[in-house]
Amino acid sequence: MNNDIERVLYSEEDIRAVVTKLGKQLTNDYQGKKPLVISVLKGACLFTVDIIKRMDVYLDLDFINISSYHGGTESSGKIDLLSDLKEDVADRDVLIIEDIIDTGRSLEYLVNLFKKRDAHDVKVCSLLDKPEGRVVDVNVDYVGFHVPNEFVVGYGLDYEELYRNLPYVGVLKPTVYEK
Ligand SMILES: O=P(O)(O)OC[C@H]1O[C@H](OP(=O)(O)OP(=O)(O)O)[C@H](O)[C@@H]1O
Ligand code: HPA
Ligand SMILES: [Mg+2]
Asked: Is 142's pLDDT higher than 70?
């Protein structure tokens, strides 16, 4: 699997350092607030377990599963809600945990959904931000790394459902796409 990677963008150590930094900011900003942390599956699964361990606040954790890439490298433009939250977001301080903001469509969908359900506040923490991919305008409150306009995998991010278990974030070799 590692042989499919052209280059590593962020190593395990880089990710650990940025998770610690973001965890400190979130600990500070959410003191006394008891946020509802919403992990966006599947991509955000690894980032979520690491970041919540660095947040020294009382929090609730919930999961939502949405999909628009269907394993490929291009957004279909349509967001499918595969499984919804268990918790009610009404009057809650919601913190969305994402792996990447690319076109911004997934985030726009989620922010609109949670606002419609009367969340008190909706903030976003994403490991990666790809500003050049943007199609819709969205606000990202906490960002780990800004990535170049390339399709990246690892640490939760997939290509055709594979590579999520890589401990780092990297760029795939073009030969993998051409197969
Ligand atoms: O800003 P966008 O262009 O909307 O892209 C970002 C979203 O796309 C990916 O999800 P995907 O649809 O691949 O589902 P997955 O997390 O299950 O892989 C990623 O995990 C983000 O949720
Ligand atoms: O670059 C990406 N990699 C994996 N999944 C993604 N979903 C949006 N952008 C990406
Ligand atoms: Mg995906």
From this structure: yes
pTM of the model: 0.97
What ipTM does this complex have? 0.98
Instruction: Judge if the beta carbon of residue 130 lies within 6 A of ligand 1.
Output: no
- Known catalytic residues? 102
**Residue 179 confidence (pLDDT):** 66
Judged against a pLDDT cut of 90, whether residue 139 lies above it is answered with: yes
37, 95 contact by CB (below 8 A): yes
Q: And the tokens for 85?
A: 């939250």
| Eight-state DSSP code of residue 133 | G
Q: How close is the Cα of 166 to the center of ligand 1, in Å?
A: 17
Domains and CATH numbers, the chain: 18-150 (3.40.50.2020)
Cβ of 67 below 6 Å from ligand 1: yes
Testing ligand 1's pocket by substitution, the residue of 40, 46, 68, 105 carrying the most ligand atoms inside 8 A of its CB is 68
Burial profile 135-158: b = 16 or more Cβ within 10 angstroms, e = fewer: eeebebebbbbebeeebbbbbbbb
Residue 26, token pair as written in the block:
């979130």
